[in-house]
Specification:
eleven-stranded mixed sheet; RCK_C; ion transport; alpha/beta; about 220 residues; single chain; ion channel
Length: about 220
């Protein structure tokens, strides 16, 4: 897979190193000469250019990329890069960094963004995820389809504890993608039984989040106990 990353700061370089380690081709683009640190990510391609300029993106051959990541520290730049990548070059997957949570509402398909990653929001979500049981935590937003990656830790009093995945009437427009149980990561087969303390990760439409939370957190009545 070929990936172009706009922004060769600490965030961009870290992403590049991870992708290279996983066997992908990576191009780092930055207009600041001081950001071009080839020795830090020697296996990447480097381009000293303004990622907001069509001529620069032509030089980067963006039409060959499977993914573009707008990872600069400037939300305006990230939006422009995302829009150009999607509309001018037809890049299949565009991921954008959101620096200011107040701007998060802009990072949607209208600006060419498929996935918006807000570091402050993600960090607060991970804190919530670590301390909350029974509460739905939104980890990541996908622009297309108005879907989110959400997490909920199944509380001991949930009526679903001990119930098989295939026997649960899940809300429409939701999909259970992973069960984290202790140190294990489980694929949620229909025969797998849910256990109290399971961390459940879903891709769910935003309109179904409240319904999903109610389903997973529902308490057994005294008659059912």
């Amino acid at each position: 897979m070929r990936v172009s990353i706009a922004g060769a700061g600490a965030v961009g370089r870290s992403i590049a190193a991870e992708l290279l380690e996983n066997g992908h081709e990576v191009l780092l683009i930055d207009k600041a000469p001081t950001a071009i640190s080839v020795e830090r990510v020697p296996m990447a391609e480097w381009l000293l250019a303004d990622a907001c300029e069509i001529t620069s993106l032509d030089e980067a051959a963006l039409q060959r990329c499977n993914v573009v990541i707008a990872a600069t520290g400037d939300d305006k730049v990230n939006l422009v890069v995302s829009l150009l990548a999607k509309t001018e070059y037809g890049v299949p997957r565009v991921v954008a960094r959101v620096n200011n949570p107040k701007n998060e509402w802009l990072f949607n398909e209208s600006w060419g963004v498929d996935v918006a990653v807000s570091t402050p929001r993600l960090m607060s979500a991970l804190v919530e995820e670590a301390v909350s049981v029974g509460d739905l935590v939104r980890l990541l937003r996908f622009s297309h389809g108005d879907a989110n990656l959400v997490e909920l830790t199944l509380p001991p009093e949930s009526a679903l504890a001990g119930i098989r995945v295939g026997d649960v009437a899940w809300p429409s427009d939701t999909s259970l993608v992973t069960i984290i149980r202790g140190t294990r990561v489980l694929t949620p087969s229909p025969e797998e039984s849910l256990e109290a303390g399971d961390e459940l990760l879903f891709v769910a439409a935003q309109a179904r989040e409240e319904q999903l939370e109610d389903l997973l957190s529902v308490r057994r009545s005294p008659e059912e106990s």
